[in-house]
Amino acid sequence: MSFFNKVFASVGIGAATVDTKLEKDTLVPGEEVSGIVEIKGGNIEQQVDEIYLSIHTTYIKESNDKKYTETGVVDKFRLTDRFTVQPNEKKEIPFSFRLPSDTPLSIGRTRVWVATGLDIKNAIDPSDKDYLKVIPNPLMEAVFESISSLGFKLREAECEQAPYRLRRRLPFIQEFEFVPVSGAYRGRLDELEVVFFPTSSTEMDIVMQVDRRARGLGGFLAEALEMDETNVRLTVTSSDIPTMKQKIQSVIDRYS
């Protein structure tokens, strides 16, 4: 085995490569992700300690009054134990895993991708990156449609570092920011912020922040002190879909 081949492989030249092929790339949270990882050996025999798939997104983190973008891991899956890939050998490894129910949606600036990695000792680990389009499940879609029918328009959707009171499994949350553009809430509310916390494919908690528009001197004082915002938590299930609009409207009316 050539000394130079070993050296080149250690810096990624002529080394093993990896390519992940997804069965489909448009999914809802909680749906099964399946596909094949293709591995092609390089110029020399290499030992692979493991193959892993990980789901990533980015989120905004704040530190020392500065905001910056951080990459977050939604979940990680190990596919294989240690094995050896021979020169120019081709391997196909099928996989299947469930997309976590709290995976962010591909809306606004949010991007979600699957990263494939080969852990190879004393070498640069080959990797592959495949973007997913994560769309709302029927329950989330019912919430979005209900809010839209009440005269709100989605202004922004972004993943942000989760405040301590809202932190669960992940260090970030995806926040959907709506503004009233028509209907009864135009002129009454500044915005409506919504965060989903799915517990299953048919049930989720919703945290809504109702931001009231300042009215008069007292209103501006309340706004300056951030007293014009009310946070409310509610639980919805698939059985609520037919009456979702009324359920959300009653909550907004109570706190607007």
Provide a quick synopsis of the model.
It holds the Pfam family Spo0M. This protein has 256 residues and is α+β, with helices and mostly antiparallel strands. It has helices at residues 3-10, 138-149, 216-224, 244-255, and strands at 17-22, 26-27, 32-40, 46-63, 66-78, 83-85, 90-98, 112-120, 127-134, 152-161, 172-180, 189-200, 203-212, 229-237.
Write up this protein.
- This protein has helices spanning 3-10, 138-149, 216-224, 244-255; strands at residues 17-22, 26-27, 32-40, 46-63, 66-78, 83-85, 90-98, 112-120, 127-134, 152-161, 172-180, 189-200, 203-212, 229-237.
- With 256 residues, it is of the alpha+beta class.
- The protein has two domains: 13-134, Immunoglobulin-like (Sandwich), CATH 2.60.40; 138-255, no CATH class.
- The strands form three sheets. Strands 2, 4, 5, 6, 8 and 9 form a six-stranded mixed β-sheet that branches. Strands 10-11-12-13-14 form a five-stranded antiparallel β-sheet, covered by helices on one side.
- Helix 2 crosses helix 4.
- The longest helix has 12 residues, at 138-149.
- Residues 1-14 and 214-228 have low confidence and may be disordered.
- InterPro entries: Spore_0_M.
What characteristics describe this protein?
alpha+beta; Spore_0_M; Immunoglobulin-like; 256 residues; Sporulation protein; single chain; six-stranded mixed β-sheet
